[in-house]
C-alpha cells in the first residue's frame, strides 16, 4: 500500500510540475512575442552610441542593432518604444514592453525589481573636465572637494557614483546627459561624470572644449532587463547573446559603433 501511495505521489508531482511548466511558458514574454509576431523593446534615445536619433529622426545605435538582429532571428517585427529613463523599469513591469535594451547597468537596486541577462558589454564612469582644470585635476579623487561643481544625469549610475566617490563636491543633476555635459562647455560646471563611450564620443566632437579623463573609476556591466519569473525568456536571451558573440555578429556591431566613427555624421 505504501508503495502504491508513493507511486501515486510521484505521478501527481510530475503532473503538477508539467502543468506548472506549461503555465510558465504561456505567461512567458517570449511566448507572447511569438504569438504577437512583434518584439517590443523599451529604450531611451539619447545615449550615444547605444540609443539615439539620426538626422531622419530614426532611433539607431548599438542596442538598436542588437534588437534588430534578435527580432530577425525570432522571425518577428521590432517595435522600439522610446521611454523616459525614470519610467523605463515601471514600463517593463507594467507590460508596456517585453524587455529593456538601453545601456542599463546591472546593479543590486535594479536587480531587486527586474532580472538581467549576462552582461553584453562592460563600461565605466569617466570624466569630462573643464580645460581650465587641466593641471589641477588628474582623477576623480581630485574632484572630491567642495570647491568643484559636477554635473551628471539624474537617476543614472553616474549619479550614484558621483555621490559615492565625490560626495564633497557640489552636484547638479539634469534630465539628459547632453544638458549636463553642456554645462561644462558653458562654464557652469567643472566636470561632467558619465559612461566612457558617451564621454569618448562627446570629447571627440568638442575638441578643446572639454578634456576627457578616460580612465574608468567604476566597473559597470550592462545587461538586458526582463520581468521576474520568466526563465524561458532569460534563457533565450542569454543563449542568443552567446550565439552572436560566437558567430561574429557581435564583433561586427561593436566595430560599427565603437571602433568606427563613420556613424557620427549621420546623427549630427
General description of the model:
This protein is an alpha/beta fold and 268 residues long. It has two domains: 20-122 and 222-267, 3-Layer(aba) Sandwich (D-Maltodextrin-Binding Protein, domain 2), CATH 3.40.190.10; 125-218, Periplasmic binding protein-like II (D-Maltodextrin-Binding Protein, domain 2, 3-Layer(aba) Sandwich). It is built from eleven helices and 14 strands. Strands 10-9-11-8-12 form a five-stranded mixed β-sheet, with helices on both faces. Strand 9 (149-153), helix 6 and strand 10 (170-174) form a beta-alpha-beta unit. The chain is globular and about 60 Å long. It starts with a helix and ends with a helix. Residues 1-17 have low confidence and may be disordered.
Biggest sheet statistics? 5 strands, mixed
- What's the CATH architecture of the largest domain? 3-Layer(aba) Sandwich
User: What overall geometry do the principal axes of the alpha carbons give?
Assistant: globular
* Percentage of residues in strands: 15-25%
Please work out how many helical segments DSSP would assign: 11
User: CATH top level of the largest domain?
Assistant: Alpha Beta
| Fourth-level CATH superfamily of the largest domain | Periplasmic binding protein-like II
CATH topology of the largest domain: D-Maltodextrin-Binding Protein, domain 2
Which spans have pLDDT < 50 for at least 5 consecutive residues?
Answer: 1-17
**What's the alpha carbon Rg, rounded to whole Å?**
22 Å
